[in-house]
Design a protein that fits this description.
- The chain is mostly helical and 190 residues long.
- It has one domain.
- It is 78% helix and 0% strand.
- It starts with a helix and ends with a helix.
Length: 190
């Protein structure tokens, strides 16, 4: 059953359109905030990779790393809404997918603080992308929506990681990291 869930998650990632970020006028409500992370391949792969890597690290990383992502994503969002410009946001978002995918695929071990710092750095770019597309009148509902959906995708990654018990399931999870790397590279060159 767990293997079926993993395959379904990978299939969802394959068939989901890769629209990284919605247009400015669409980012204006709580429901748009919820929908946004669930509608782009960059979010699905990146957020589940955070959860998977956290499980691979174990211990406090399972909750510290996803929390650091959400907190720094909201910081990047806030900075963008106040007009702070950051160059190369989209390439940084896709680079973070590649890097997080590599960390999962290779089961990279990192100290708690370093993992939180790396995840937090990537989250700033994800949050900035959200902030540049948000409608000024509805910033808070939109931010709450995308923060909750992001945490939900982290939980999916954590759930998949914790449910992988056998060697085949663990290999499939690491394969999901490799898939994220491949999609990230293809997205950057296309």
């Amino acid at each position: 059953m767990r293997m079926i869930l993993i395959l379904l998650a990978l299939t969802e990632a394959l068939i989901t359109p890769a629209f990284a970020h919605v247009g400015l006028g669409q980012a204006n409500s709580f429901s748009a905030g919820i929908a946004h992370p669930l509608s782009g391949l960059d979010h699905i792969l990146g957020m589940t990779a955070v959860g998977l890597w956290a499980v691979l690290a174990g211990g406090r990383a399972i909750w510290v790393w996803p929390m650091s992502f959400v907190a720094m994503m909201l910081a990047g969002f806030t900075a963008a809404t106040f007009g702070l410009k950051i160059s190369f946001v989209e390439p940084a978002v896709w680079s973070s997918i590649i890097i997080l995918g590599l960390f999962v695929a290779l089961a990279v071990q990192a100290p708690l603080w370093l993992g939180a710092a790396l995840i937090g750095l990537s989250a700033i770019f994800h949050g900035h992308a959200h902030g540049t597309e948000a409608a000024t009148a509805n910033l808070i509902p939109y931010a709450i929506g995308f923060a909750l959906a992001t945490a939900g995708l982290h939980a999916v990654g954590i759930g998949l990681g914790l449910s992988a018990r056998g060697p085949v399931e663990k290999a499939a999870l690491r394969g999901a990291g490799g898939f994220a790397v491949l999609v990230g590279i293809l997205s950057m060159v296309s």
